[in-house]
């Protein structure tokens, strides 16, 4: 697996440093995380380990690029009707 180099650390690091986020930043993170989860669900994939430590940020700590832990926490669910 190849990913971008993300030097901003994870969300847990930033929470520990700042204590809490401003409302606008919290809204940005929640929107980006929600869109990522929606995309995975559309592909039939569930992420079973969503937590601040698995949400990676860019160098400015402003943008969520991708979140994951290990592949064992992902599960593919084929759709059936």
From TrEMBL:
Which keywords are on file for this protein? ATP-binding, Kinase, Nucleotide-binding, Serine/threonine-protein kinase, Transferase
Q: Does the keyword Heme apply?
A: no
Task: Domain (Protein kinase): give its ranges.
Answer: 1-81
State what protein this is by name: Protein kinase domain-containing protein
Q: Name one Pfam family in it.
A: Pkinase
Q: Entry's PROSITE patterns?
A: PROTEIN_KINASE_DOM, PROTEIN_KINASE_ST
Q: Does DNA-binding count among this protein's keywords? A: no
Q: Which Gene3D superfamilies match?
A: Transferase(Phosphotransferase) domain 1 (1.10.510.10)
One GO MF term attached to the UniProt entry: ATP binding
Q: Which InterPro entries match?
A: Kinase-like_dom_sf, Prot_kinase_dom, Ser/Thr_kinase_AS
Species name for this entry?
A: Nippostrongylus brasiliensis (Rat hookworm)
The alphabetized list of GO BP terms reads: G protein-coupled receptor signaling pathway; regulation of signal transduction
């Amino acid at each position: 697996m190849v990913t971008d180099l993300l030097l901003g650390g994870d969300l847990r690091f930033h929470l520990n440093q700042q204590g809490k986020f401003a409302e606008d930043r919290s809204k940005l993170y929640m929107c980006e995380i929600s869109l990522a989860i929606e995309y995975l669900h559309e592909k039939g994939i569930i992420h079973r380990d969503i937590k601040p430590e698995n949400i990676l940020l860019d160098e400015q700590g402003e943008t969520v690029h991708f979140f994951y832990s290990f592949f064992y926490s992902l599960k593919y669910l084929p759709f059936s009707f």
